[in-house]
Amino acid sequence: RDVQAAQETVLRKEIATMRSHAIRTVGRIERGLEQESAKTSLESVRDDPWIRQFWQRVVPREDRRLYAAIVDSAGRVVMHSTPNQVGESVSYNEFARVEPELGKDVFETRSQALAAGRRAFDLRIPIEVGARTIGHYHTGVDGDWFKQQSSRIRGQILRRWSLVIGGISIIVLLSAASLYYIAYRSAAMHSVADMVQLQRVTELG
């Protein structure tokens, strides 16, 4: 239970950080599209160097972030932090809901179009112009990174519990030894008392 709770905390914290970044990025995209009414398609986002520079600055530096991508309403990858993935089609059948505590916008996936088949926890934020959703911004927590964190956490918790259980075991052993010594001394005293009593009876006889 401790391991599972710690793992959920790590993933929840990372998802919260990525959600904050994603919401700010989506806000900038939406403002850019709304400022120029002619730009109603996500294709125009490619002309904005800010996103590309942001991805080049942030994604490679954070080993826990596997990718960032913009997908249009037809499921086609318009932009991706790995340029080779642009033009791929996203199939949402490859996405599975994870723990509800992480949010309704988080899915586990091995999408070829987004994660190149690797395990990822995908965060999906809609991109809206007016009242219309024209696509989604995707970013993913690397499943391998999470696995490494989980192993590290498991090791730390197991070491901590090993110390606790070891300490309890030592206390139990010391208590058992003490009880044995008390029982042994008590039996010895009873034996001496019996011998003294027998000696007195013998002397009286």
Topology:
Elements: H1 2-35, H2 49-58, E1 65-72, E2 77-80, E3 95-97, E4 106-109, H3 112-115, E5 120-129, E6 132-142, H4 143-204
Antiparallel strand pairs: 1-2, 1-6, 3-4, 4-5, 5-6
Helix pairs in contact: 1-4
Uncertain residue ranges: none
Q: In total, how many beta strands?
A: 6
Give the SSE string: HHEEEEHEEH
Q: Can you count the helices? A: 4
Structural class: alpha+beta
Strand order of the largest sheet: 2-1-6-5-4-3
The largest β sheet comes out as:
6 strands, antiparallel
Name the helicity range: 40-55%
The coarse silhouette is: rod-shaped
**What number is the mean pLDDT?**
82
User: How large is the radius of gyration?
Assistant: 33 Å
In percent terms, what proportion of residues is strand?
Answer: 15-25%
End-to-end CA span? 72 Å
Descriptive labels:
six-stranded antiparallel beta sheet, alpha+beta, 205 residues
Question: Mind explaining what this structure looks like?
Answer:
With 205 residues, this protein is α+β, with helices and mostly antiparallel strands. 54% of the residues lie in helices and 20% in strands. The protein is built from four helices and six strands. A six-stranded antiparallel β-sheet has the order 2-1-6-5-4-3. The mean pLDDT is 82.
